[in-house]
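Posting for a labmate who doesn't have an account.
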Amino acid sequence: MSFASRDGIRLQYALQGRPGAPVLVLSNSLGTTLDMWDPQMPALLEHFRVLRYDTRGHGGSGVPAQPFGMAELGADVLAVMDDAGVEQAHFCGLSMGGMTGIWLAHHHPARFGRFVLANTAALIGPESVWNTRIERVRAEGMAAIADGVLARWFTQPWLAGDPSRMAPVRAMLENTAPAGYTANCAAVRDADLRGLLGGIAAPVLVIAGTHDAATTPEQGQALAQGIPGADYLALDAAHLSNWELPDAFSGAVVRFLSQA
């Protein structure tokens, strides 16, 4: 692992793959780490040099003392790229990571080629849901919300399957620092990116899950319709579609990015 630094915060990242290959930045969801992309790594490394990182407040990255928003999350990506010596890359983010991608596509188009925005929306609400979750984590810790979050992340048939495949996801969620988690909840709660969509000129693929209750297919369709020329793909999965349908997700990402 390597570390970049921005605003006094340590940002953990890993750069893997053959030098000279196109670089792909992966941005994790709320309550996970860079390990959420493990199911994609074999397929992606055949085509790309992969730069994945822990969003601030998650995994090995630092927990800031002050509130922050999408502008800070986006600037962290650029800091990691700079530290890794990456001038330009493709981008794939899921949920909160997808919101970070929307911000980057609008504000820093020169640093990126194509974007995959998965299981995300330009506005994820309502505010009351975020406030309730923040209060509960502050009072009871991450374990108090784990079962409810996992039930939204996956379909019931998947949850009823082999329990060993759930263990790494639960561990990522429960080991997230409560202060880091709640700060990122607030960042997502306060982000309304709808006004940015029309100004995005990069090629974009929006991936949604047909059973996703956190960011619904309707929200995914609205996101794709708001970005000029964006493609849309629905997978038969819930919120963590990359984990529930790893082969289908990886194949869609490789096909779209390989059109560059």
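Reply:
Got it, the structure tokens are right above this. The chain has one domain: 2-257.
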